[in-house]
Design goal:
The chain is globular. The chain contains five helices and no strands. It has one domain. About 85% of the residues lie in helices and about 0% in strands. It is mostly helical. It starts with a helix and ends with a helix.
Length: about 120
């Protein structure tokens, strides 16, 4: 089995498991895995978003089916996420790779600190 294929396969499984278990966060696994396969910064972030979609859809279906998602909350949050996603994608296309990496690292650090406290 090709090294990049194996890394992508097992990394993808970790992304899906994190998304399903934590309700998100798979991108924080996907981006470093994709960088290890040789992707550039912008490509890794863009690909991470693309692969999160099916993982999120699968998790969302289970959560909805289980009655864990109130529809009154889902609609406004989904609209906000959609708008933010469009804005973020446009910014990614224009932002220097170093800035994107620094912002991503800062977000990961802040998330880790917040989880501790």
């Amino acid at each position: 089995m090709d090294r990049h294929f194996a890394l992508s396969l097992f990394g993808g499984a970790a992304v899906g498991a994190a998304n399903g278990l934590f309700g998100g966060g798979g991108g924080m696994i996907a981006v470093p895995v994709l960088r290890k396969t040789g992707r550039g910064v912008a490509s890794a972030h863009a690909t991470a978003i693309a692969v999160i979609l099916p993982a999120s859809a699968a998790s969302a279906a289970v959560y909805l089916w289980s009655g864990l998602v109130p529809l009154s909350l889902l609609v406004p949050v989904a609209l906000g996420v959609f708008a933010g996603g469009l804005l973020g994608a446009k910014l990614l296309a224009r932002a220097p790779a170093g800035i994107v990496s620094l912002l991503f690292a800062g977000l990961m650090f802040a998330a880790g600190i917040r989880m501790i406290f």
